[in-house]
Amino acid sequence: MKVDGKHFRSIWRERDGWSVGAIDQRRLPHEFVVAKLTSCEDAAVAIRDMLVRGAPLIGATAAYGMALAMREDSSDAGLKHAYDTLVVARPTAINLKWALDEMRTALAPVERAEAAYARADEIVEQDVEINRGIAGNGLKLIEAIVAKKKPGETVNVLTHCNAGWLATVDWGTATAPIYLAHERGIKVHVWVDETRPRNQGASLTARELGHHGVPHTVIPDNTGGHLMQHGMVDLAIVGTDRVAANGDVCNKIGTYLKALAAHDNGVPFYVALPSPTIDFAVDDGIRDIPIEQRSGTEVTDMTGRTADGRLETVRIVPEGSPVANYAFDVTPARLVTGLITERGVLKPDRASLAAAFPERIAAAAE
Ligand code: MRU
Q1: Are residues 139 and 239 in the same domain?
Q2: pTM for this structure?
Q3: Which of 72, 104, 68, 111 is nearest to 87 (CA)?
């Protein structure tokens, strides 16, 4: 997708053929800085410190982290050390483990450093292809709304967090149908939840939509229900960090509340889901998906640009007040209208997921 008119991906192999470039998302929207990752540890830190974030991009970064590790030590011990280092970098997005398992399988029988880069490149390209599939399948939903409800009018989509191209390698998941609709000349407007405490919506989604020319409005997190009550949202599309076998959806904290509001107001609530985000090893999302708890400073402090151009961090909570910072929540499948996948729009239930992705069930059983 475009930044200042130039096409970018969120992660790439540098021209030297071995180091990895990634956009430092901690500095957005104020500064566009590219970070260079040169070791497995760099990749682990990039994931842990949220230089990169978003489930698919976390997976892609881990794959390259494994490739960087294999350059240094391609022994069995080296492979195990890289896997163990990367797999704990963040707990909730299952794409991390998926990518590392893919890498481990690909590397078991071969000369490792070269094969690792080859498989990591494939994972990256596969992410773009999957998101193109999601774009096409989600576009049909937007087209149906235009045809049934709003010929020639603007379709209003609400999204939460950043499930845009910055969270993936390109296109995004929740944003993929929006970008495609925009490209096809359909009028779309996006309500962007700011997404406290890290403000991925305000900082990242707004920035990427703006650079790509998609009309959007940033709203405080608590606004969605009001907009839905007044017919100002035609559909919600969010991303996800992990979908359980029963169709429960784990995503950025606050997603559940939007799903409840959508349900109460008859607004379709869709989740854009790349297949590596399905976790067939988890039967019940609410009970079993681990929810990351992050530093309290994300809640107590806010960083922004001052009128004279400086970046400053200020405290907004009284000294001594305890804070809680659950990074994700789980939306029960019954509140989800459909899962937009690369293989079609599925019902959020075990049978539909299993029928669409039988190979993933087989892999989970191994
Ligand atoms: O904590 P983050 O910023 O990594 O959380 C990201 C999200 O919750 C995204 O919506 C999700 O990973 C889907 S990304 C396509």
Answers
A1: yes
A2: 0.93
A3: 104
